């Protein structure tokens, strides 16, 4: 708590400035550092192969965090981060165990080209979910053996009523959502499966309401969301609460390429590294999750996003001990070939570049209800297992082949079908994908795995 007090004091006494000025400084400084450290995107690659550039990106991320600091929106002041604090944090890591009982796992600390695949966390991971399909969507993920945890979605109704943010009704809906998630693990025969979230709350009290042994225990990483190199009192309060109670928690950030802070793939990669360092030094979270999206498509599967995210992952996994995860915000809806291709392209890059945990995926950018399923998470896990045999060069070529299949659809993706049109639902105990969905899954799997180098699949 000693460092937390120091940073809280800095949030009160630090340099005052507007949020707009902070955004501009992050933008300008990240672009300057890209030039200083000779970080350059060739416009064609998906998986970087230049490890010296990855190390330079890490150095640039340290310099960006140290020189620009973290903006506290509650006080409109800048929290200055000492470079010494950053450097001292790099090699400090505690083993991460998530889940309970027979579903408890130790998350492996991965590095580039590791032979162990990433941990797969299924579920809607913050995407919109209808009340009527909430338990079924979580159950479909729990039924997949490759899935090692569930990241909850945002329930949009309670007893048929739309939930007004920051209202008492929200608290009731958060309780219902957390209980349904836990029930889904029991029905699926995987009681104790790790839960990540919750994603429905907008109130700090709603987040903390479900932090209990019954629902989100200390081994169920709880969500603490932060903006681009920014924080506020609510976020810091949640961090203090989880630290004091010995909870694992996951800090999530979704930087927007083309937004006020980010104007180039190189700048995005540097900011992504700086935000990872922010999560460890300031938030002290167990896991940092990044999910950069493109301002035009709203997806995480665009070429520039994948290159920058993969470069950041290489930089972090080579230079610090920390658990990192990635959100998959796909443009297409589920039950489409494009949705599978978006997932495959990202999973290959994340796997070879050393990401520890893959989250999702969610379709329709998470904004349309019920575009998540266990089939999509299973596919993500299978692709990541296959990708452990690839070199960086092989991964880059393979992602390029896959990307060519959906590149021209990113700004006008297929809508797909909601969950209840992709699964045959008779009851919680009689739930399975439709034959159409299974046939599409088999077709795309055969096509993509057939492109992997080596023996034919």
Strand content: 5-15%
Shape: globular
Low-confidence stretches: none
What's the tally of helices? Answer: 15
Major sheet: size, sense and barrel closure?
Answer: 6 strands, parallel
What is the first-to-last residue Cα distance?
52 Å
Domain count: the total is 1
The helix fraction, in percent, is 40-55%
Nearest-integer average pLDDT: 95
CA-atom Rg in angstroms = 21 Å
> How many β-strands, per DSSP?
21
Please give the CATH architecture. Answer: Alpha-Beta Barrel
CATH homologous superfamily descriptor: Monomethylamine methyltransferase MtmB
Per CATH, the class reads Alpha Beta
**The CATH topology, please?**
TIM Barrel
The largest sheet has its strands arranged as 5-19-18-16-14-12
Q: What class, by secondary structure content?
A: alpha/beta
Catalytic activity: Co(I)-[methylamine-specific corrinoid protein] + methylamine + H(+) = methyl-Co(III)-[methylamine-specific corrinoid protein] + NH4(+)
Enzyme class: transferase
GO molecular function: monomethylamine methyltransferase activity
Family: Belongs to the monomethylamine methyltransferase family.
């Amino acid at each position: 708590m000693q460092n937390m007090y120091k940073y809280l004091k800095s949030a009160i006494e630090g340099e005052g400035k507007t949020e707009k000025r902070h955004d501009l400084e992050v933008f300008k400084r990240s672009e300057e550092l890209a030039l200083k450290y000779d970080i350059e995107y060739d416009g064609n690659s998906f998986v970087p192969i230049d490890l010296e550039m990855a190390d330079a990106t890490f150095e640039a991320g340290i310099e960006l965090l140290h020189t620009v600091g973290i903006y506290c929106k509650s006080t409109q002041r800048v929290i200055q981060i000492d470079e010494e604090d950053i450097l001292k944090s790099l090699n400090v890591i505690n083993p991460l165990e998530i889940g309970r009982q027979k579903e408890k796992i130790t998350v492996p600390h991965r590095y580039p080209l590791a032979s162990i695949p990433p941990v797969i966390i299924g579920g809607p991971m913050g995407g919109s979910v209808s009340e009527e399909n909430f338990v079924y969507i979580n159950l479909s993920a729990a039924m997949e053996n490759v899935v090692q945890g569930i990241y909850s979605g945002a329930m949009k109704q309670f007893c048929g009523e739309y939930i007004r943010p920051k209202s008492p009704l929200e608290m009731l809906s958060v309780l219902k959502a957390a209980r349904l998630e836990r029930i889904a693990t029991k029905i699926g025969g995987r009681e104790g499966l790790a839960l990540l979230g919750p994603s429905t709350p907008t109130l700090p009290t709603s987040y903390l309401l479900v932090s209990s042994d019954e629902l989100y225990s200390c081994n169920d990483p709880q969500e603490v969301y932060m903006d681009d190199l920014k924080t506020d009192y609510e976020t810091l309060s949640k961090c203090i609460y989880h630290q004091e109670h010995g909870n694992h928690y996951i800090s999530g950030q979704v930087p927007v390429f083309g937004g006020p802070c980010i104007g180039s793939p190189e700048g995005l990669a540097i900011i992504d590294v700086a935000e990872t360092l922010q999560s460890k030094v300031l938030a002290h979270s167990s896991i940092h999750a990044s999910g950069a999206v493109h301002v035009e498509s709203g997806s995480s599967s665009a070429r520039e996003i994948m290159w920058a995210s993969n470069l950041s992952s290489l930089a972090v996994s080579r230079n610090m001990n920390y658990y990192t995860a990635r959100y998959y915000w796909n443009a297409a809806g589920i039950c489409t070939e494009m949705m599978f291709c978006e997932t495959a392209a990202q999973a290959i890059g994340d796997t070879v570049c050393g990401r520890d945990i893959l989250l999702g995926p969610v379709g329709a950018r998470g904004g349309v209800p019920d575009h998540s399923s266990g089939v999509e998470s299973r596919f993500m896990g299978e692709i990541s297992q296959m990708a452990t045999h690839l070199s960086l060069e092989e991964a880059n070529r393979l992602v390029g082949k896959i990307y060519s299949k959906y590149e021209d659809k990113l700004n006008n993706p297929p809508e797909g079908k909601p969950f209840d049109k992709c699964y045959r639902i008779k009851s919680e105990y009689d739930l399975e994908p439709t034959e159409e969905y299974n046939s599409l899954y088999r077709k795309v799997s055969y096509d993509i795995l057939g492109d992997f180098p080596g023996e034919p699949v």
